Amino acid sequence: MSESIERQGQSAVEVATPTRTRDIVKKYGFEFKKSLGQNFLIDQNILHKIVAAAELDGTKGALEIGPGIGALTQHLARSAGRVTAVEIDNRLIPILRDTLAGEANVEVVHADVLKLNLHELFAERFEGLSGISVVANLPYYVTTPILMKLLEERLPLEHIVVMIQKEVADRMAAKPGGKEYGSLSVAVQYYCEPSIVCTVPHTVFIPQPNVDSAVIKLSLREKPAVETRDEAHFFRTVQASFAQRRKTLMNNMSSWIGKDHRETLTSIMEGCGIQPSRRGETLSLEEFAKLSAALYDAGLGLS
Ligand SMILES: C[S@@+](CC[C@H](N)C(=O)[O-])C[C@H]1O[C@@H](n2cnc3c(N)ncnc32)[C@H](O)[C@@H]1O
Q1: pTM given for the model
Q2: CATH T-level topology, domain 231-297
Q3: What is the 3-state secondary structure (H, E, C) of 252-268?
């Protein structure tokens, strides 16, 4: 269900102002769908910050997920060599045809990004460019599945700069020791170096969401932050360590591996320099990697 629209020239009118956005919405009789996370940005300042963080230039490609009526797309078109914007809502396709009428380097693809073969899309759209980044104001209901798809599919990305719910951004960037640090922090930091670009009040959207937002920049590492014996085992170890946050590492590990292995687990943890009485939320990525490798070598938690 993919449909492409190539554009010619340069559009002059900014989409992301309160008046222009309201005019477009009225002109097309567009009704926002909460179920698709439709909150459109109306603040030029924030758009400039998002685009600046992505470090684009004419040799780079940008993938936008969910262009809406084209507020961010316009800015990307001016900064990147090529832009591909993937939008799920067919009612927005004719609107984008108008608002992006001037942008020669933009292609709109009508699809659900979660169902799209992004490797194929990248080969078709971004071949020959010097780098590709994802830049988006993400629909909040699918933020984590979208980001995990981008990371787990090992797409050749430089940066992911996305507006997401502030609470989720804080969890992604959290360091060990706090209540925000969890398996999402470990998964994101395994693949990327995260930094919060700015926090964003709910007043810069139409309609306004119920939560505050943040722009987070995830710079992809050349190789994962830690070495693992087996990646899937590493992530299973992390999941198990956070299974019940109030429990000690020992209790979480023995629920996963089996109560009859408590002695072995004690000596494995101590061998890694990790006190069994610690909680999962205090372990660094390096410690999770050490623990996973030792369990793996002992044949524990393999399936
Ligand atoms: C938060 S709005 C952002 C709109 C625009 N980029 C802006 O900043 O004003 C999220 C957009 O993602 C689209 N969307 C939601 N789920 C999607 C999916 N699975 N694949 C592609 N686009 C999706 C929505 O229709 C909406 O246009």
Answers
A1: 0.94
A2: Helicase, Ruva Protein; domain 3 (1.10.8)
A3: HHHHHHCHHHHHHHHHH
